[in-house]
Amino acid sequence: MDLLFESPQFVPNYICGIQETLIGVIGGLSSATTSCMADILHIFKIPQISYGSFEPAVNDPTNFPSFYRMVPNEALQYQGIVQLLLHFRWKWIGIIAKDDEGGDHFLQTMEPMFSMNGICTAFIIRAPERFTTLNIHELIKDQKSMSLFFNMGKVNVVVTYAETASTIWLGDLIQTFARTQEIFPTYREFSVAKVWITTAQIDFTMRIVANIFDTDLQIFHGAISFSINSKELRDFRRFLQTIHPSWTEGDGFIHNFWTAAFNCIYSKFTLPAFLTGQCTGEEMLESLPASLFEMSMTGHSYSIYNAVYVLAHALHIMQSARSNHRIMEARSSLSLSNVETWQLHSFLQRISFNNSAGDEIMFNEHGELAAGFDITNFVTFPNKSYIRVKVGSLDPQAPPGKELKINGDRIEWHSDLIQIPPLSVCNDNCHPGYGKKKIEGKKFCCYDCVPCPDGMISNEKGRTCIVCPEDHFQNKNRDQCIPKIPNFLAFGENLAIISTFSALLFTLITAVVFGIFIKHQNTPIVKANNRSLTYILLASLLLCFLCSLMFIGMPNEATCHLRQTGFGTIFSVALSSILAKTISVVLAFMATKPGSKMRKWVGKKLAYSIVLSCSSIQVGICALWLATSPPFPDVDMHSMTKEIILLCNEGSVFMFYCVLGYMGFLAIVSFTVAFLARKLPDSFNEAKFITFSMLVFCSVWLSFIPTYLSTRGKYMVAVEIFSILTSSAGLLGCIFSPKCYIIVLRPQLNNREQLICRKI
Fold it and tell me: How far apart are CA 557 and CA 563, in angstroms?
C-alpha cells in the first residue's frame, strides 16, 4: 500500500502532492503474497510481473488482466512430472503439498493426471501453512503415518510442491525422524532415502532451507527438480565481480546481504579497535558457497533480468508511439509522471524481442512466458554446498508425448537407495505368464499375480494379460502366442492314405462284381429280381466309394458343394434301388397266386418309377439346399486350442439333417419291407440279404450321428468317410457276396432247376 499512497498518515486511495508514478511491480515472493498483491494492483491496473510464482488464484487472465509471469505455464510443469514418473516407471508415489489454496490446486490438478496414467498415490501429506518446529514426542504420536512415509521398499519417490514453508517443514521432519531412529531401534528398519521430485519453486527456497533453518541439505541429495529455463548472459559474471557494498543508492538490500553473507559488520564510519569483524568492502562474491550465492545465471535471475527488460521495452515502444503522434514532444525526455499504467498493458501483451542471450521474449494469451523448463539434479556436499546438474529439458514445442528429454546416466542418486535407479511400486511386477488381479479395498497399483487365463498371455513383466489373436494359441508358459496349425484331412496323412486306399479297393471290388454280373448276365441268378436294378445298385455303390475321396484335401467351394449333396443323392439312388428290389420281390410273390390283381404291377416300369421318384425327392432337397444356404469353406478357430480347423460349413444344418433323415427313411422302409418278406421262397427272394444289409446300414448311420457330433477337425471328416465306406461295403457284401459265391465258385447251382429245388 505504501507503493501506491505515500503520506505521513496512511489513508488508502488518497494521493496528496506530487509523487512518482508507479509504473509496474516485479516480484517473486511466495505465491500467497503474490496473490494478495495482485488483488490490489489489478484494481489500479498496475502491471505486476512475477518471476517465481505459480499462484493458481491468478491463473485466469480475465480476472487478473494486469498479472504477467516470466515463468512457463504451470500445466506444462505438471505434465512433465507425469512424464518423468512414467519414464522411470514409478507407479507408487507419495505427495507432499502445503495445506493452503495452492496445495489444493496442486492436488486437484495432479491426482486425476496420475490416475489417468496408471500412477497411484500411496499417501498425501499436507504440510502446515505456518511452519512450526517438530519434536520427537509429536513424531512418536503419529507413528502410523511416519512408518508409511518412511517405509523402505515401498514408496521411494515423493512428489513435493516445493513452497518455502512445506520444504522447510519437510527438512525438519526428516531430520527429526533421523534423531528418532538413534533413540528408538524400532524405527531403524525404515529409510529416509527418497527420490524427491520438486517443482520449480525449489530453486528459490533451497537457500532459505540451508542457511536460515540450518537444514542438512544431504537429505535432498539426488532430488530431481524442474527449473526455469535460463541462459548465461554475456558479461554477467564480470558484473557480479564489480559489485561493491558502497552501491547504496536505490539499493538498500546490499548492506544487509553483505553483512549476512560474509558474517561481518558494514559501516561508513571507522569502528573502535576493540570491535572486530568489520567489512572491508573488498570481499569477493565468488568466494561464497553456491548454497548462499551463485555466480552463474539462475532461473530466477534470468527471469528478473527479462522482467526488467520487458517493462523497459514496453515503455520505449509506448514513448515511440507518442513521439510519432506528437511531433512537438519528439525532443522531450520520457516523463514517467505522464505515463498512465493502464496504457502499458496493450504494449506488454504484444511485446516481443530478443534478449542479449538470443532468446525471444513474449507472452502467450494467458500472460505467461512462452518457454520450457530445465530438469536439474541436486548434488549436495557435507559443507552445506550443492550444485545443480542439468539432466534434461521440457520443451512445449515438441510433439505430444515427446516433451520430456532426460539423460538418466547423468543423474546422481541418493547413496542409501538399494537399487539404482530405484523402484517405486506397490508390489513387484508380475512375471511373464502372469497377470494382475485387483486386491479388494486397495488401489489399482496394488494387485496379486495370477496365471493368465486360457487364450491369454503376458510376455512382459508387469503387463496385464492380453488375448492371443484368433489364429494363435498360448504356449505352456503363457508368455507367447504361437500360430495355430491348419487342421484338415490332407492327402499325405496316414488317415487319408488309409481312407484313399480303402475307397479305391472297394471301388475295384465293386467294379469286379459289376464285371462278373455283366459277364454272367444271362444266368438265372443275375436275371432274378430285375437285372437292371442290380446294375443301377452296383453303379451307385461304385460312385459311393469314389465320392468319399471328395472329403480328403483342403476344402474349397466346389468340393463343399459336392460333398454332402453328392453322397446324399448317390446313396438315395442306391437305397431306392434296394427298395425297388424288395418291393419287386413282394409283388412277384403275390402275383403268383391264382387270380391275383398284382400281375399288372409286376415289371420294370414299377421298379424304375420307384427309383426315379425316390431319388428325385432327394435331388429336390439338395437343390433347395444349394439354392438357399449352400455349404461353403469355413474356418473354426475356437474348437481346438492349437489348430485352425478348415472345414465345409453346412450352411444350413437343418438341410444337412434333412438329407440324412431322408436316407434314413428310405433305409427303414427298405428294412421293414425286406423283413416282412424274408420268409418268401428262396428262388424269388433276396429279402434275407437285403434285411441284413439294411440292418448294417442303419447301425452304421445311427452310430455316425453321435460320433460325428463329438469329434472335431479332420477326425470328423474321417468319421464321415468311414461311415460312407462301411455302409456301402455292407450293402455290397451282404447283397452280392452270396450271388458271387454261386456264380464264381458254385456255377453248377446257377441254373433254373437248382434254384427251384434249392431250399435254405
Answer: 10
560 and 708 in a single domain? The answer is: yes
The DSSP-derived string for 78-110 is: HHHHHHHHHHTT--EEEEEEESSHHHHHHHHHH
Judged on CB neighbours under 10 Å (0-12, 13-18, 19+), 335 is exposed
CA distance 71 to 229: 9
CA angle (625 as vertex; 624, 628 as ends), nearest 5: 80
Helix or strand run (H / E) with residue 672: helix 653-676
- The residue segments making up the domain with residue 458 are 434-483
Alpha-carbon distance of 195 to 220, in angstroms, equals 8
Give the separation between CA 218 and CA 220, rounded to whole angstroms.
Answer: 5
pLDDT less than 50: residues of the chain: 136, 139, 142-144, 152, 273-275, 327-334, 684, 758-760
Beta bridge partners of 467: 456
Give the CATH number, domain containing residue 510.
Answer: 1.20.1070.10
In this structure, which amino acid lies at residue 65? P
CB atoms within 10 A of CB 739: 22
**Listed residue (458, 267, 299) closest to 376, CA to CA:** 299
The whole model's pTM is what?
Answer: 0.63
Residue 255 belongs to some domain of the structure: no
The length of the chain is 760
671 with 734, same domain?
yes
Judge contact between 311 and 317, C-beta under 8 A: no
Taking the C-alpha atoms of residue 366 and residue 61, their distance in angstroms, rounded to an integer, is: 6
Contact predicate 34/100, CB 8 Å: no
Sign of CA dihedral 347, 353, 356, 358: positive
Cα 675 to the center of its chain, rounded Å = 69
